[in-house]
Structure formats: C-alpha cells, structure tokens
Amino acid sequence: MQLMFFALFLLFYIVVMVGNLLILLTVFSDPRLHKPMYFFLSNLSFVDIAYSSATAPKMIADFISEKKTISYWGCVTQMFTFHFFGCAEIFVLTVMAFDRYAAICHPLRYTTIMSANACIVLASLSWLGALGHSFVQTLLTFQLPFCNNRVIDHYFCDVHPVLKLACADTTLVNMLVIANSGLISLGCFLILLASYTVILFSLRKRSSESRRKALSTCGSHFTVVTFFFVPCIFIYLRPSTTFPLDKAVSVFYTTITPMLNPLIYTLRNEDVKNAMKRIWSLKVSLKEKQKA
C-alpha cells in the first residue's frame, strides 16, 4: 500500500510542479498576459509550488522510509513554511477576487484601480500579511513545553497535532490559533462570497457574450476558492480536536488543490490556452529553422 501511495503522490507532486511552472512560463513569456489578472495568477502558481513543497516531498519520502521521523527544527521549519505559503494563497485568492470585481463592476476605471503600482502593493501586502501570520502561529505553538510524547498523529507538522504533544495548558493558544488561522480563512471567504454576489448582480444588465466571458473567469476562480477555503475552515475554525477525516482533508488542500489549480485555470481560460499554443508554435518553428 505504501509503495502504491508513494507512486500516486509522486505523480501528483510532479503534476503540481509541471502545471504551475507551465503557467509561470506562459505568463512571463507572452506580453499579452502582462495584465493584473495574470500577474496574480503567476503569484498563485508560485505559491502552489512552494505550498505543496512544504509537505509533499517529506510525505512522499516517508512512504518508502522505515522510520518516519522529523527533527525539532525541521518540524518548526515545516510549520512555518506551510502556514506562510498557505496564508499567502488565501490573500492572493482574495486579491484576485478584488481584481475581478474591479474589472467587471468598474471597467472604465479598471486600469486606474489596478495600476502596476497597485498590483505590486497588493501582492506585497499579501506576502507580508502571510509572513506575520506564520511567524505568530509558529511562535505560539513552539513556545510551549513538550514532554515525553514525540509521536505526531499526522503526516506533517501542523498546529493542532503538535499542540497535542504539549505538556501545558493549551486553551489560550487554541483560542489564538482559531483567531489567527480560522478567522482569516472565514473572513477572506466571506469577502470573496460578497464580491461574487456583487459581480453576479452587476452582470444582469450586460450582454450575453459579456456575461458568458465574465462567468467563465469567475467560475474558475470560485472553484479554486471553494476547493481551498472549505477544507481550511473545517480544519482551523474549531478547537484543537482531531478527527480521522482531518488527514484526508489536509491531503486535499495541500496536494490535490495545488494540482487542480493549473488545470482549472488553463482548461477554462481561453487567453492562457491561446498563449500556450502560441509559445508551442514558436518553439516548433524554431526547431524547424534549426534543422533547415
């Protein structure tokens, strides 16, 4: 069974890396994609690569290891990077929703609202906010004393499984974790729902073609948002209790969702598909010239 899971999750991880790297290459290579929407999409692809890499390689290696261990500082690093890139994904998805709101509800002012400087500021705030969140989360967890029990009932170092090993009262830390992780997830999700509600109402007066294009773009984004936010809210917006379902849910949003993101954005986005075709055609024509 472990060898089967090793092969399966190795395949998933390769798809995550290849799919997201392909989106990064496409966005950077095609000048037609140098727009706010694709700037944030490239940020999302980079986050997915790093976020999945925080947990997947160790999990894959453990499938073929007799002793599934991690050092103390390895655990600290894994928790910090996992929450840093996970929170960055939350903020980037929220900013992407704001970008769609500005593009659909204020088309005449869109270039002013989402200027190059505004995009850089929003992306920077997303990364800085994620850094602050991760630092606080990791500090709260590892300032507690840990005693003899050293078995983490999880496949990576996350807050709730590690808190179960502490030999001190974790009530306050649990409440702070809910306030830090759970409320960030829930708050951003509610902001996203509100923005899409406003977008849907604004589309009623548009032409059918305009509605179709807007709904296609927003549909892709909302699918990604649902796949990521719902598991996060389930895991973090509750006290430090663990359920058998937690590991399966965690696998979904740490490995499956980063794998699905590039597929969702490429299969439902005509601009990205056309850009990939242009890059592929250019590559083929260059090879033919070299042979000639």
Automatic annotation (TrEMBL):
It comes from the Eukaryota. GO terms for molecular function: G protein-coupled receptor activity; olfactory receptor activity. This is Olfactory receptor. GO terms for cellular component: plasma membrane. Keywords: Cell membrane, G-protein coupled receptor, Membrane, Olfaction, Receptor, Sensory transduction, Transducer, Transmembrane, Transmembrane helix. Putative odorant or sperm cell receptor. It is found in: Cell membrane; Membrane. It is a multi-pass membrane protein. Its main location: membrane. Belongs to the G-protein coupled receptor 1 family.
